[in-house]
Specification:
Order of helices and strands: EHHEHEHEEH
Shape: globular
Structural class: alpha/beta
Number of helices: 5
Number of domains: 1
CATH architecture: 3-Layer(aba) Sandwich
Number of strands: 5
Largest sheet: 5 strands, parallel
CATH superfamily: Dehydroquinase, class II
Length: about 150
C-alpha cells in the first residue's frame, strides 16, 4: 500500500530577508533566515506537512516559485518583504494559485512608514499576520493546516 505524502506548503521570502538577524535587529529581531527555516520545518512536521523554503531578492524568481507551487503545493506562506508594497506581478502569480495563501510580516507594518501600510499581496491573501516576529511563520503554517482540514 502506498504511503500518503504529506501536504507540501511553500514558504517564500522576499528581498533582504537573507540578512535577517543582522539587518535592523531592533525591528526584525536576531533570528536568522536559517532559524526561520528550522522553525517552519519543525512546525510543518508537527502538523504532518512538509515545507519547501525559498528566499530571493529577485521579483521574477519569487513569481517562478509561486508558479511552481501551482503544481507542487497545497498552500503558500509568503513574506514578500518590500515587494508587498510594489509588486503587481507577485499578486498576479498568487491569483493563479488555487490554495490558501497567508501573508506574513515580521514587523508590524502598520506602525511603520505610511508606504508600508498598503499591500498588493493582501488582495489575494486568505490571512495576514504582522508584528508577531518570526513566530508569524508558525502561526501562518498552523492557519494553512486549519484551512486545508
Amino acid at each position: 500500500m502506498p504511503v500518503a505524502q504529506p501536504a507540501t506548503i511553500y514558504v517564500l521570502n522576499g528581498p533582504n530577508l537573507n540578512l535577517l538577524g543582522r539587518r535592523q535587529p531592533e525591528i526584525y529581531g536576531r533570528d536568522t533566515l536559517a532559524d526561520v527555516a528550522t522553525l517552519c520545518a519543525a512546525t510543518a512536521a508537527d502538523l504532518g506537512m512538509a515545507v519547501v523554503f525559498h528566499q530571493s531578492n529577485h521579483e521574477g524568481e519569487i513569481v517562478d516559485h509561486i508558479h511552481a507551487a501551482r503544481e507542487a503545493a497545497l498552500g503558500i506562506v509568503i513574506n514578500p518583504a518590500a515587494y508587498t508594497h510594489t509588486s503587481v506581478a507577485i499578486l498576479d502569480a498568487l491569483n493563479a494559485f488555487d490554495g490558501p495563501v497567508i501573508e506574513v510580516h515580521i514587523s508590524n507594518v502598520h506602525k511603520r512608514e505610511a508606504f508600508r501600510h498598503h499591500s498588493y499581496v493582501s488582495l489575494r491573501a486568505d490571512g495576514v499576520i504582522a508584528g508577531c516576529g518570526v513566530q508569524g511563520y508558525d502561526l501562518a503554517l498552523r492557519r494553512i493546516a486549519t484551512l486545508l482540514a
